[in-house]
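User: Let's play a game. I give you a shape written as C-alpha cells, and you guess the letters that built it. Ready? Here's round one.
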C-alpha cells in the first residue's frame, strides 16, 4: 500500500510543532527504557505547558478502585458560576506514560471554555500494571464522579485515554443515569493493524505503527484478549445504547481509521456519532492548539462538542 506523502499533507506550523516535539521526545522513544520514556515525555509536556486561564483552580485527591488501589484525581473548577455539567477526562500516553501533569493545561482550558467541572484520572500504567488496571481505575473515577454530582457527565479522552473513555461508555450502558456523551480525540480503539490508515500512515510523524505494536504488547502482556471490549472497544459485538459520540481523528495518524470504524458501528446500531478526520494534523496535536491554526480549530470543535453534549445531550 502506498505510503502518505507528508511533504504535501503537513503545513509549516505542524512541521515546526513536530520538530519541537522531537527535540524533547525523540521519534525512537519506544526503544528506550520505560523510565527514560517517562522522563522525556514529562520533559516534552513541560515544554508545551500553556498554564491555567484566569479563574481556574484545581485540587488533587485520591480515591480507591474497587480492588482497593489508590487512584489520584485532579478536579478543575471555574470561579463565578455553578457548572452545568462535568467532564471525566482520561489522558493519553500509550498506557505507558502521562499522568495528571501531562494534560493539566488541556483540562484547565476545557474547564475554562465550557464552565464545566473537569476531573482527570491518574490511572495505573504499564508495564507495572497490565490490563485491566487502567480500565479499573477509570471506572473508579466514573463511579466517584457519578456519586459526587448530579450533573450530566461527558466522557472524554485522547489517544489511550480515548480508548478508556469509549470502554467506559460501553461498560456503563446499564447505569442510571448514563454518560450524556463521549468525546474521543485521536483514539486507538483496537482496529485492524494490517489495513487502511495503519499501513498508509505506518511511518507518520509523532506516532508510528511500530509504536502501536509496542504499546499493545506491553499492555496485554502477551495475553490473547480477543473480544474484551474493555481492552479494545471495537471488539465489542453490540454497539447499541451508546451515548452520542464525537470522534476527532488526525489525518496523518495510523489510528485515524479507528474513529471512522467506531462511528460507523454506532450509527449502524441506531446511535448518533460524528467522525471528523482533521486534515493535515498529526497524533498529539492537542499540544499544538496554540501554535497551529489547524490544531487550534480542531480544539475549538472538540470543546464545542463537549459543551453541546454537556448542556443538551446533543452533538454539535
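Assistant: Ready! My guess for every position:
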Amino acid at each position: 500500500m502506498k505510503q502518505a506523502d507528508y511533504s504535501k499533507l503537513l503545513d509549516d506550523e505542524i512541521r515546526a510543532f513536530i520538530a519541537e516535539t522531537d527535540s524533547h521526545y525523540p521519534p525512537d522513544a519506544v526503544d528506550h527504557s520505560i523510565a527514560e520514556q517517562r522522563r522525556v515525555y514529562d520533559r516534552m509536556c513541560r515544554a508545551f505547558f500553556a498554564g491555567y486561564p484566569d479563574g481556574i483552580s484545581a485540587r488533587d485527591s485520591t480515591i480507591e478502585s474497587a480492588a482497593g488501589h489508590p487512584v489520584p484525581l485532579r478536579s478543575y473548577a471555574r470561579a463565578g458560576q455553578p457548572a452545568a455539567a462535568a467532564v471525566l477526562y482520561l489522558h493519553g500516553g500509550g498506557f505507558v506514560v502521562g499522568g495528571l501533569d501531562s494534560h493539566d493545561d488541556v483540562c484547565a482550558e476545557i474547564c475554562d471554555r465550557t464552565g464545566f467541572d473537569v476531573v482527570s484520572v491518574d490511572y495505573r500504567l504499564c508495564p507495572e500494571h497490565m490490563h485491566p488496571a487502567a480500565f479499573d481505575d477509570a471506572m473508579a473515577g466514573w463511579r466517584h464522579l457519578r456519586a459526587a454530582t448530579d450533573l450530566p457527565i461527558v466522557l472524554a479522552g485522547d489517544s489511550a485515554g480515548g480508548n478508556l473513555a469509549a470502554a467506559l461508555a460501553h461498560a456503563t450502558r446499564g447505569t442510571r443515569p448514563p454518560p450524556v456523551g463521549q468525546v474521543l480525540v485521536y483514539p486507538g480503539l483496537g482496529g485492524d493493524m494490517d489495513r487502511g490508515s495503519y499501513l498508509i500512515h505506518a511511518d507518520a510523524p509523532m506516532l508510528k505503527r511500530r509504536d502501536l505494536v509496542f504499546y499493545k504488547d506491553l499492555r496485554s502482556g502477551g495475553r490473547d484478549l480477543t473480544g474484551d471490549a474493555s481492552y479494545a472497544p471495537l471488539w465489542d459485538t453490540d454497539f447499541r445504547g451508546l451515548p452520542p459520540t464525537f470522534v476527532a481523528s488526525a489525518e496523518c495518524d495510523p489510528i485515524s481509521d479507528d474513529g471512522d470504524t467506531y462511528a460507523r458501528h454506532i450509527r449502524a446500531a441506531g446511535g448518533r456519532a460524528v467522525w471528523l478526520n482533521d486534515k493535515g494534523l498529526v497524533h498529539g496535536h492537542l499540544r499544538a492548539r496554540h501554535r497551529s491554526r489547524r490544531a487550534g480549530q480542531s480544539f475549538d470543535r472538540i470543546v464545542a462538542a463537549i459543551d453541546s453534549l454537556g448542556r443538551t445531550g446533543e452533538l454539535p
